[in-house]
Amino acid sequence: MSGLEKMLSPKATAVVGVSTSNPFSPGNVIFRKLCFENGIPTFPINPKGGTVEGQKVYKSILEAPDDIDLAVISVPSKYVPGILEQCGSKKIPSAIVVSGGFSEIGPAGAGLQKEIIDVAKKHKITMVGPNCIGVFVPDKLDTFFLPSERVARPLRGNVAIISQSGGWLVERLEEFASRDLGIAAAISIGNSAQTNVTDFIKHFGKDKNVRVILAYIEGFGPNEGREFVEACAEVAPRKPVIVLKGGDSEAGHRATQSHTSALAGNSVIAAAAFKQYGIIQAVDEDETMAYAKVFSFNPRLMKGSRVGVMTVSGGHGVIASDEASFYGLEFPSFSNEDQEAMREVMTPAYRGIASFRNPIDLTGSAADVDYEQVLRIMLGLDYIDSALLLLLPYAPGISLQIGARVANVTKQFNKCVVAYVPYLDKYEVILRGFELNGIPVGDTIEEAVQMLNGIRVRSKFLQQIGKL
Amino acid sequence: MSGLEKMLSPKATAVVGVSTSNPFSPGNVIFRKLCFENGIPTFPINPKGGTVEGQKVYKSILEAPDDIDLAVISVPSKYVPGILEQCGSKKIPSAIVVSGGFSEIGPAGAGLQKEIIDVAKKHKITMVGPNCIGVFVPDKLDTFFLPSERVARPLRGNVAIISQSGGWLVERLEEFASRDLGIAAAISIGNSAQTNVTDFIKHFGKDKNVRVILAYIEGFGPNEGREFVEACAEVAPRKPVIVLKGGDSEAGHRATQSHTSALAGNSVIAAAAFKQYGIIQAVDEDETMAYAKVFSFNPRLMKGSRVGVMTVSGGHGVIASDEASFYGLEFPSFSNEDQEAMREVMTPAYRGIASFRNPIDLTGSAADVDYEQVLRIMLGLDYIDSALLLLLPYAPGISLQIGARVANVTKQFNKCVVAYVPYLDKYEVILRGFELNGIPVGDTIEEAVQMLNGIRVRSKFLQQIGKL
Q1: What's B110's domain CATH number?
Q2: Dihedral (C-alpha) B250, B254, B255, B260: value to the nearest 10 degrees?
Q3: How far is CA A127 from CA A84, A120, A194, A253, B259, in A?
Q4: Do B317 and A216 touch (CB under 8 A)?
Q5: How far is A1 from chain B (nearest CA, A)?
Q6: What is the ipTM metric for this complex?
Q7: Measured between alpha carbons, how far is B444 from A221 in angstroms, rounded to an integer?
Q8: Per residue in B433-442, pLDDT tens?
Q9: Fewest C-beta in 10 Å: which of A29, A442, B263, B282?
Q10: Residues of A in Cβ contact (< 8 Å) with B342
């Protein structure tokens, strides 16, 4: 097993820096998580000894039992090199350093960071951090020092998230959790003094539980950019790699430097390289979530950019058109013959007020059955590569069954279908009806269009490398 | 009183097109709302007579009592001209036509639309619609045919919304309601055969209960564009007018035409005209909500574009920098002297790991008091026009009091302050703490930056016309 593999499924761990007086200190939060939630034998360390949560505190890691796979270190920065030395003597293969006070604070901390890199290298310790919030694998490993009542933990899923920013990662966790989207792992790499985003791309590339890899990057050190894209190129034919790059503006560069002291590269060059190597670049948090979510569904691909759109509100068709046009997706006009065929299957009472151009506006009078029937015709057209359903459950004729009914129609075609349902508690059951049947749902019209764009971008890449 | 004034505060109304057999028909939903929720004497009309909800149904509007201020018409389109004639004989000054089947379905409906325009003109009836979902004034008038369990109604507030798309309007209502943002009125103008968006701009421009006007537009008929911007120019010095224009893409144009058959103008020309006349143009739903929300707070203005940013997560500073740069907002560097002054007031234990460049990163160790102290110095700087607080309540040192404490500091300065708090139930009380004390809060970092941009755009306009 590699150091990373041991780190992510440790048989025993130590938490260096628990407090015997403050149960809310970062070390104590981590200790309780590992010991009581993850059920991993975990040894608390503090030079003063004593007990924590009824368990013996060891005065140093040297005194703790053997066969520890992971040490989580949360002590003032000046003590970290010494503790890593002890981990080395103890043959502990991996360490997560959550402490801050390294290169992110300037020259003083940079020296200390160099020191811990050297110690880790000398002892062949796989080290994540420093200045990170930790690592989280649902039901398995939680070294986040932020308690669950402050930061939500998503359920188990297939998206692996790697982030250079702890704050950004925390927000994604909240977002995934609030949308019931699962994750396979969440990694805060902090200053990535040693283990960096590329190492995790390689790791998750081979992990069969991971279907989508999502990385937030602010910059690369020397040569790191090239290594990163090459690692992604290796993985991209098998699974989507989504990257959001922060710090592209000039002010962003400055913010980046005071943050993880990473070197923000030229954004245009980076974007071109990302594209060439099959990386799907998101430009903001919304695209990030849209891409991560849609690929977690393992969607069917799009052989072309042509989308058929169905809505019950003309205004939503307009918004979708604008958005799709921005992404280069096309809404081809339906032939007169095809329009007539669609009108034929529509409930007679409402035929007259519906419009069958693309986007199709079934109007607020449409019912489930109209959706089904018209969709069946639309998906059968050879000049349509995918369907976008703008589903406004405000229309009284739309029932809670709509998702399952639509899914039954889509199963008959090898084309991807994405829906939009407003994200409101009262429509939860409608949304679930789609998603449980494999149709990804966007919270906004924009998100649904972005989902299709993500699929199209990936499909193009797979076409280029002859895999579609 | 003008026709619109009578329409929006009617003493008595009639609903033409109630069903005696289907209590869920649009007419019945409208009847129940007006009669039982708004408490307005309301007369149901159906040629068959009978009773509805225990009330006598009149066979025609001619038989109903006199002094009706508003007729809401929900019958198949072919009957609408005749009913409007009856409204004329009955001297009813205003009508809302929710029926579809007019110009939006093509030439057949266009003739019918011309007909109702002529009848309304002949009898001097102020008419809204056809093909609209109605008009809603909180606690006062609700002619929406979508029941409340399908579409939320926001609380009373100061934002007036006018929309060419019923679907778009419905979504904004859901969004305002879910965010506890109040509205002054919501108007679905449908095909705006007679009364159009300009008429409502003028009306709400004079309404002292309206602080912000928000309009969704897909296009203008001949000359309507010029009249619209001129009406806005009249209103803009007094209150912000925010416009979102749909249908700017080519596909969007086609969708627009099958929707309200409005003529989508050249988007570049429109954007230039909007700017010249002091209209704040939003490019998407997110900007729309950000601008509407921030102006509903009547925020302090920004004399320049310089923003001081405080965060507890470096990554969030980076994201804000990128976003602000896109909008032309500047994050000037703080002088070494000012940085030192900030460091001085910070809790000694955490001084060493905080960064006082702009964005300031107080780190996850910061507490309420650090926010207060550093903010006080920042707002006092003469090269800072506004403050952006990226508040991540994940940081354990931040308490539920933070909003009130920060607001107390900002009261001492004539500079606008906008905060970001992630929109999660568990932080509701923190968010309220800010907003009850007059500090607008964005749900996302982007929204908070967009709020500042809205303020800056309006401030520039007011500077140009010598009002700031």
Answers
A1: 3.40.50.720
A2: 130
A3: 10, 7, 6, 26, 59
A4: no
A5: 32
A6: 0.72
A7: 29
A8: 999 999 999 9
A9: B263
A10: none
Nearest chain B alpha carbon to A168: B315
The per-residue pLDDT for range B397-429, each reduced to its tens digit, is 888 889 999 999 999 999 999 999 988 888 888
**Cβ A315–B446 below 8 Å, yes or no?**
no
On whether both B315 and B454 belong to a single domain, the answer is yes
Domain that holds residue B95: 1-130
Contact A170 B363 (CB under 8 A): no
CB contact under 8 A, B322 and A247: yes
| Chain A residue with minimum CA distance to B362 | A259
**For residues A361 and A389, what is the distance between their CA atoms, to the nearest angstrom?**
11
Task: Look at residue A311 and tell me if it is in a domain.
Answer: yes
Identify the residue among A258, A318, A420 best suited for mutation to test binding to B, counting B beta carbons within 10 A and taking the highest.
A318
pLDDT band at residue B264, thresholds of 50, 70 and 90?
A: very low
Question: Confidence class of residue B353 from pLDDT cuts 50, 70 and 90?
Answer: confident
Q: List helix spans (H) across B79-165.
A: 80-89, 107-122
Q: Which of A105, A315, A321 is opposite residue B353, by nearest beta carbon?
A: A105
DSSP 8-state secondary structure symbol assigned to residue A238? T
B266 and B361 assigned to the same domain: no
Residue A351 pLDDT exceeds 90:
no
pLDDT given at position B255: 64
Domain boundary among B268, B296, B324: B296
Closest to B174 (Cβ–Cβ): which among A259, A315, A422?
A422
Which CATH number covers residue A196?
3.40.50.261
In the 8-state DSSP scheme, what is residue B157?
A: E
pLDDT at B32 over 60: yes
Contacts of B446 in chain A (CB under 8 A): 284-285
Residue of A nearest to B133 (CA): A364
Q: Is B145 part of any domain?
A: no
How many Å apart are CA B150 and CA B435, to the nearest integer? 28
Residues B288 and B308 reside in one and the same domain:
no
Same domain for A364 and A290, yes or no, is no
The reply to whether A141 falls in a domain is no
- Which residues fall within 8 angstroms of residue B438, CB to CB, at 6 or more apart? B297, B407
What is the sign of the dihedral through the CA atoms of A189, A195, A198 and A203? negative
Q: How many CB pairs under 8 A join A and B?
A: 224
Residue from the list B174, B312, B313 with its beta carbon closest to the beta carbon of A424: B174
Please determine, for residue B263, whether its predicted confidence score (pLDDT) is greater than 60: no
Task: Write out chain B residues lying below 8 Å of A164, CB-based.
Answer: 315
Please report residues of A whose CB lies closer than 8 A to that of B358.
254
Min Cα–Cα distance to chain A from B422, Å? 8
The domain total for chain A is 3
Question: Does residue B112 sit in the same domain as residue B162?
Answer: no
Residue ending a domain, among B279, B296, B313, is B296
Please give the Cα distance from A404 to A391 (Å, whole number): 13
Give yes or no for a cis peptide into B10 (omega within 30° of 0): no
pLDDT at position B159: 98
The reply to whether A178 and A119 lie within a common domain is no
Asked if B218's CB is within 8 angstroms of A248's CB, the reply is no
Of B258, B322, B352, the CB nearest to A357: B258
Quick one: A272 and A305 in the same domain?
no
* CB-based contact B430:B407 (threshold 8 Å): no
Q: Domain check: are A200 and A251 in the same one?
A: yes
Instruction: Search chain B and give the residue with CA nearest A325.
Output: B249
Closest-CA residue in chain A for B98? Answer: A364
3-state DSSP assignment of residue A420: strand
Contact A247 B353 (CB under 8 A): no
Q: Is residue B139 part of a domain?
A: no
Q: Quick one: closest CA in A to B321, which residue?
A: A252
Q: DSSP secondary-structure letter at B300?
A: P
pLDDT in tens, A190-206: 999 999 999 999 999 99
